[in-house]
Model the fold of this input.
Amino acid sequence: MPVGTRATVKTLSPQNLLDLHAQIILGNTYHLYLRPGHELIKKAGGLHNFMGWHKPILTDSGGFQVMSLAGLRKITPDGVRFQSHIDGSYHFFTPEKVIEIQNAIGADIIMCFDECPPFPATKKYVTDSLETTLAWAKRCRSAHKNTDKQALFGIVQGGIYEELRRRSALELMEMDFPGYSIGGLAVGEEKEDMYRITHFLHDILPSNKPRYLMGVGTPGDLLENIGNGVDMFDCVMPTRNARKGTIFTRNGKMIIKSARYKEDFSPIDSECECYACRNFSRAYIRHLFSVDEILGMQLASIHSLHFYLELVGKARQAILEGNFDSFKKSFGANLDEIMD
Amino acid sequence: MPVGTRATVKTLSPQNLLDLHAQIILGNTYHLYLRPGHELIKKAGGLHNFMGWHKPILTDSGGFQVMSLAGLRKITPDGVRFQSHIDGSYHFFTPEKVIEIQNAIGADIIMCFDECPPFPATKKYVTDSLETTLAWAKRCRSAHKNTDKQALFGIVQGGIYEELRRRSALELMEMDFPGYSIGGLAVGEEKEDMYRITHFLHDILPSNKPRYLMGVGTPGDLLENIGNGVDMFDCVMPTRNARKGTIFTRNGKMIIKSARYKEDFSPIDSECECYACRNFSRAYIRHLFSVDEILGMQLASIHSLHFYLELVGKARQAILEGNFDSFKKSFGANLDEIMD
Done:
């Protein structure tokens, strides 16, 4: 899912996303709640209408953003009191409030409010946090008013502790959510721990419901976790890097501002079918970055999202054809180590 | 002509410009010479190939930009010595050099190197300057190597002095250029003086060759000068204003950041057919500007360029139908005074 934090995937229009064959995008509840506000979005007829994107949208719960406001937030059993990073104003997110906000925003898939523990955290901390998250999941489920139009996912927490992950998954499955998210990874732990946890959850989570790994990741992360049964991902990585001139390609990252591309009139990737590669050279895109022209960020974002979407599209096809492992191996061989 | 100073119309892709039915865009020789450099553009196969825009392009001569570098440039009979505004490096533009640069860039329409006098300037200064410009026009004409593919326009100067404008036009017409530009207006003189000069030149310049009024202007300026026989314009006004949140509409300028649009879910202009108006509300575009999202600048630029291109398109149609004066009157009645 391309990330559209504040009701836009940065630098791109909905038409660009349609051209990229994006099927679903993500919006951030915390950011949308602050600006423009969920009430405004509701008056606009929901986020789809507000931003002119009429395909599926997923919103997160705001839990991750709120927890990241170190020093500006206080966790209580009832919810989280926090200060806006914009103007310092005080707000209080409860499970019920977060569902009310997400009901107003109107995304097709919404998330339970969770506490995302930091990394590292003691087992004691993660256990307490998990109990809070499970209690909040129940409250979110009860508060959710729009079950026929919005699928509410439970979020599996438990840090890098398999025992806690199992407990989290099993208790959420008892609540019978239409899909399950895996939160609390990609927060600083070792790659091996991330892969170990998704692998561990592979046999626990129901195979007939979607699994969404939140905030992940590199192309290598995607392939590894698809191998562990994950169906959905979101990450700012392709677009945030692109805006800084680092472009994802089949052969690794390309630092497009590099002097080596100054007179390189070939496309970013001669085999790529995206708008950027069909029409523009590395030299041109480098020039745009050199003179701070916005089109450079757009073309880089288009290519990197195309690369990501093509990667998962090919993975999907390989799964259907029963040869995902060989696809993963052959694709991975082309990725240099910095992609991991 | 939308202005694409540094090989891109700011915030827009060539596809956006095609969707807007732009027929021709402008590039700035001074800026392209400094970055990425005309030699690089030549190696790319010319500016069309470099920037992926395969419809006509016009380049200015750099004269206006170089003259604007007050304190950083020295005019001599042979040319202008100046310092780059980027790194302070020294450069020397002669008529021959400017033609060499424009031949390398490869635009379909190119300009003679001219001295654009400041405003106000004494008649003595403007006369001397004009003589320089006329001498340079001759040298440009001789230096131009690519006459079958690039049309070189002469630039009429002479400030607000009709006698000098006549002399400038007649001497250039003797050199028989394929088109004539009117320079040195919109530099601070009264509107009445601008209109007086274009009206004055109307009966002097040949009616079978295009006339291009450089760096103009507001919607009102366009209509007034079309009435005075001008065929072509370029101006950063629609795009530069759009990027700051000021949008041109049939009913005047719209300051989209204004709080009055916060919950206004109607499009910028409900009768407009542009991508921004067909898909997005004022409230959404206001939100994008409020949170500094680039899509806001893009949508505002798309609308304002559409407005300008539709305005000249309708003027063209009205001329063909023989009712330009009534069109101008009816259209102008809708424009509030800030459009002038």
